[in-house]
Write a structure and sequence with these properties.
Elements lengths: L1 H12 L5 H17 L9 H13 L4 H20 L26 H9 L7 H15 L3 H5 L6 E2 L4 E5 L5 E5 L2 H22 L20 H14 L8 H14 L4 H8 L4 H4 L7 H11 L7
Antiparallel strand pairs: 1-2, 2-3
Helix pairs in contact: 1-2, 2-4, 3-4, 5-6, 6-8, 6-10
Length: about 300
């Protein structure tokens, strides 16, 4: 597996990829090499297709298959470039088609129920309320949320600095309610924890389970969102990304420009944002009622 590590070092040093992206590449390529155990120079296109088919048969989504293929193709390109293998078997392979699915979104009513779910009689739920509010207000990714530092929020002007994919920095406006919840959490929990531990950790949100002021984990945020969704009576299978999708969809439905949403979400390509231009059933019904001639009086 030394070649995989060599490639990961190249991506880290030469390409400057984030830890999360590197971890994804490592997972995909280690799974690939554990399944295809031939020496790299002997791997054929048939071996690669058989690996992808096996992942599909195990229930992997089309997006996961496409991600495996992309990682494998770039890995083999690197190996050929470095003359570790004599040729790149993937150079004439076409990427598998990805089935495009509309992202799951909450209605505005469901979103409000979710945001109200934390019980503010308990101090830690002020943290949870602030996180839910920020996720929906900003459309941030969970990795961006847990990496927020105190210095990233300007409480006076209502802006947050976010470090996105590829270490790209962007600024997102935040409404007064989210700012107020963050301030309340800081006063009730964050400051007392730091005073007690006599430390100055920079992270905005701390983990409740840790004995020290440790940064919150992605899994903890995912579990938290699902827990409050259940409490709010939401039957949809939602995750942290659902709040990101809902933020974009609600903005678009209310007339926000697609380019503004692209900037807000930190999409490098607007084609990633265009997935939110789907038509909701309510919009379709309203348009049909308004414009179809059969709904007119003859």
């Amino acid at each position: 597996m030394q070649e995989v590590q060599t490639y990961l070092d190249y991506l880290s040093v030469e390409k400057g990829l984030s830890e999360n992206t590197l971890a994804s590449y490592e997972y995909d390529l280690m799974r690939y090499r554990q399944s295809v155990v031939k020496p790299l120079a002997q791997i054929t296109r048939k071996d690669i297709w058989n690996f992808l088919i096996a992942q599909k048969e195990r229930g992997a989504a089309s997006t996961s298959i496409a991600r495996y293929f992309s990682a494998i193709k770039m890995f083999h390109r690197f190996l050929a470039m470095e003359r570790i293998i004599p040729r790149d078997e993937t150079c004439i392979m076409e990427a598998p088609r990805v089935e495009k699915k509309l992202p799951e979104v909450l209605t505005i009513e469901e979103t409000l129920q979710l945001l109200k779910a934390p019980n503010k009689r308990f101090k830690w739920q002020y943290r949870d309320a602030a996180i839910l509010e920020l996720l929906y207000a900003t459309g941030m990714r969970v990795s961006e949320m847990i990496n927020l530092k105190m210095d990233d929020i300007n409480f006076e002007t209502g802006w947050i600095k976010v470090m996105g994919k590829g270490n790209k920095e962007r600024f997102i406006p935040v409404h007064d309610r989210a700012i107020a919840l963050c301030k309340r959490y800081i006063v009730l929990l964050r400051e007392p924890i730091q005073q007690r531990n006599k430390t100055t950790q920079p992270w905005l949100f701390f983990s409740q389970q840790s004995a020290i002021d440790a940064r919150l984990t992605r899994q903890a945020v995912r579990d938290m969102v699902r827990r409050y969704a259940s409490k709010a009576g939401i039957k949809k299978n939602i995750g942290v990304h659902t709040l990101r999708h809902s933020c974009a969809t609600h903005l678009l439905e209310r007339g926000a420009d697609l380019r503004i949403i692209q900037e807000l979400l930190g999409h490098a390509d607007i084609s990633s944002t265009e997935v939110y231009t789907h038509i909701s059933p309510e919009q379709l019904k309203a348009a049909h009622s308004k414009y179809h001639p059969s709904n007119s009086t003859y």
